[in-house]
Amino acid sequence: MDFKSENIPHNSTLLVTGGAGFIGSHVCERLLDRGFRVVCLDDLNDYYSPDWKWANLEKSRSCESFQFVRGSLLDLGLLRNLFDREAPSAVLHFAARAGVRPSLRDPKLYEATNGRGTLNILELCREFKMSRLIYTSSSSVYGERFNMPLRETDPIMNPISPYGAAKYASEKMCQVYQSLTGMDLNVIRPFTVYGPRQRPDMAIFKFTRMIDRGLSIPLFGDGSTARDYTFISDFVDGVEKALHFAGGFRIFNLGGSHSTRLIDLVHTISKALDKKPEIEFQPTQPGDVPLTLADISRARDELGYEPKISVPEGIQRFVDWYRSSAQVGRA
Ligand SMILES: NC(=O)c1ccc[n+]([C@@H]2O[C@H](COP(=O)([O-])OP(=O)(O)OC[C@H]3O[C@@H](n4cnc5c(N)ncnc54)[C@H](O)[C@@H]3O)[C@@H](O)[C@H]2O)c1
């Protein structure tokens, strides 16, 4: 397969927004391992513990070619200084308000951070003639859909949360700026990423903690809703491949390409913990989609992306980290 790869030289400076978060911190580590200089922008907000986020960066902070800048996407002056001073060769944009359900409680915050914050990044990419941008969207843009698997070419996007709608609006804004500037702009749509340092508000973390402590798990719906779960190292492989892809405007699903039912996920976690779960069934929550399943053939064909870690193996790795990490106490 002839990939349109145009490598960013490994001694370049890269800007990673949201680099203290779950995904961003793993990406920073991978890029530092590859020899890049990494500038990480994050506002360390309290959506979940800022101490937890700071701990995510422990390994990166020990590296000379890593620089942390505390600041917000909404501070255009700070961003402009950063672009000017650091002259990054590419931007990997992960910073966002990430929860689906909280977006129903505070849609304005989601619209501001995920919408205007992304627009600020796009404006500066235009001003500073950036050649490559990775924009992290979400599988939530597909919304409530019954035809599976979900493909990038699907004509109907049906987001059912302010989070999903803001991500979709920003994808469109990315498309506009790509056509205005001609930069290579790759939109990646993650499908439920999990693994060590998982956000503590996400189901896998919460279920693990509850089963471990012998507490009953509130399971929304009858357990038949299903998600395509993507292990973090597979996802970071996809990000890295997207970073080196030059194809104008392109959207890529990055998923595991298998769906796992919620009830089966709970049993997989309980097996890894070797503890029995107590389940309390509750009504479905608004904003939750019934099913996600990624068609990853485009990422496979054009990027060479290939997820390797099965859900049982990934959950075992997560549980091993959960048991050994001092970070868990900060949740
Ligand atoms: N984890 C998943 O399964 C998943 C699925 C789909 C999409 N995504 C997207 O991937 C990205 C990373 O998600 P994550 O799970 O690592 O979430 P996360 O909350 O751990 O990381 C996001 C980071 O962005 C930072 N941030 C938020 N607002 C900011 C602002 N105004 N200025 C600067 N920094 C700000 C946060 O402090 C945080 O460290 C997000 O864009 C999210 O929407 C994640």
Any descriptors?
Rossmann fold; binds nicotinamide-adenine-dinucleotide; alpha/beta; 331 residues; seven-stranded parallel sheet; two-stranded parallel ribbon; 13 strands
Overall description:
The chain has 331 residues and is of the alpha/beta class. It has one domain (13-325): Rossmann fold (3-Layer(aba) Sandwich). The protein has helices at 22-33, 50-56, 58-61, 76-86, 101-105, 107-127, 162-181, 203-212, 232-243, 262-273, 297-303, 311-324; strands spanning 13-17, 37-42, 66-70, 90-93, 132-136, 184-190, 193-194, 216-220, 226-228, 230-231, 249-254, 259-261, 278-282. The strands form 4 sheets. It has a 7-stranded parallel sheet with strand order 3-2-1-4-5-6-11, sandwiched between helices. A two-stranded parallel sheet has the order 7-10. Strand 1, helix 1 (22-33) and strand 2 form a beta-alpha-beta unit. The protein binds nicotinamide-adenine-dinucleotide (NAD). Residues 18, 20-24, 41-45, 47, 53, 72-74, 94-98, 113, 117, 136, 138, 190, 192-193, 199 line the site of nicotinamide-adenine-dinucleotide.
